[in-house]
Amino acid sequence: MEWLIPVLIVVALVVIAGIYLWATYNSLVQLNVRVDEAWSDITVQLKRRADLLPNLIEAVKGYAAHEKAVFENVTRARAETLSVAGPADAGVAEGHMQQALKSLFAVAEAYPQLQASQNFLQLQQSIVDTEDKIQASRRFYNGGVRELNTKIKVFPNNMFARNLGFHEREFFEVIDGAAISEPPRVQF
């Protein structure tokens, strides 16, 4: 009977450790799925913006045919955003896209008749709306990454989280801060 108490203590400790591991694993899985979902939301918004840009370019092209470099930069930035592989690449592409949009809207400012076009105004509003959604999606994604990375790094999770296949994720940060320091001018 003397051996029963130490065995029960060991069994209780194993059960507590098992419950902790189970709960921690499930919360890591949930956070990982949330980060994946948030990244998917970002890619959906980037695709939406990329789909709107050709229409906006065509609307501006008729008024500013001599601004070929601006259109090429927007087209190149659009292609770059569609081919991103992860948050780091997306950050670089986002900086290039912001610069290209600034140039495009600067060209549009030079043509008052374009600014009065209902089609152009609708496209412009759609782009602004999409930019807001990208920003919100990026905040949601970065919040999920923060939670996941914190959960992976804290003790005692840091002792086994990587062994269970969980790794820290990258934040979605725009690499060229100057590119986004001022939002594209869309109000005329």
UniProtKB/TrEMBL annotation:
<dbReference type="InterPro" id="IPR023353">
    <property type="entry name" value="LemA-like_dom_sf"/>
</dbReference>
<dbReference type="InterPro" id="IPR007156">
    <property type="entry name" value="MamQ_LemA"/>
</dbReference>
<keyword id="KW-1133">Transmembrane helix</keyword>
<comment type="similarity">
    <text>Belongs to the LemA family.</text>
</comment>
<keyword id="KW-0472">Membrane</keyword>
<dbReference type="Pfam" id="PF04011">
    <property type="entry name" value="LemA"/>
</dbReference>
<keyword id="KW-0812">Transmembrane</keyword>
<protein>
    <submittedName>
        <fullName>LemA protein</fullName>
    </submittedName>
</protein>
<dbReference type="GO" id="GO:0016020">
    <property type="term" value="C:membrane"/>
</dbReference>
<feature type="transmembrane region" description="Helical">
    <location>
        <begin position="6"/>
        <end position="25"/>
    </location>
</feature>
